[in-house]
Amino acid sequence: MSTFTIFLALIIIVAFLLVVVIMVQNPKGGGLSSSFGGGGGQQLGGVKKTTDFLDKSTWTLATLLLVLILLSNITILDGGTTAESRVIDGQPEVESNVPAPVQSPVQTPAEDNN
Q: Which ranges does the record mark as transmembrane (predicted)?
């Protein structure tokens, strides 16, 4: 298994976790913590901590996803051939020894009638 495959699997897992964490949050400020809130003035202990945890986990997963993407890009560039062109290096183009395909003459419908 190549290094890029490992990074790709990690990127997929982190992206899935990031989607789950974002979907749990409510854009209007309620989210998971509002379901624990109960009545108007009552709050269970730890509701504020739930919001802080979701906020910190979102930023952590987003940062981890960015780092994994950058590291996978480095492994792609290091693992393959050089991306430089032969024209830039001043090397002549390599001609292939494959013969050109033979083209048959095309007959028009007027020539078929003769």
A: 6-24, 58-77
Q: Domain range for residue 4? A: 1-29+49-80
Q: Residue 93: what are its φ and ψ, rounded to 5°? A: -65, 140
* Residue 53 maps to a domain: yes
* HEC string for the chain: CCHHHHHHHHHHHHHHHHHHHHHHCCCCCCHHHHHCCCCCCCCCCCHHHHHHHHHHHHHHHHHHHHHHHHHHHHHHHHHCCCCCCHHHHCCCCCCCCCCCCCCCCCCCHHHHCC
Is 36 contained in some domain?
A: no
- 15: nearest Cα among 68, 70, 76, 55: 68
Q: pLDDT tens digits, residue range 23-69?
A: 988 766 555 555 555 444 445 555 567 788 888 999 999 999 999 99
Task: Count structural domains, the chain.
Answer: 1
Residue 42 lies in a domain: no
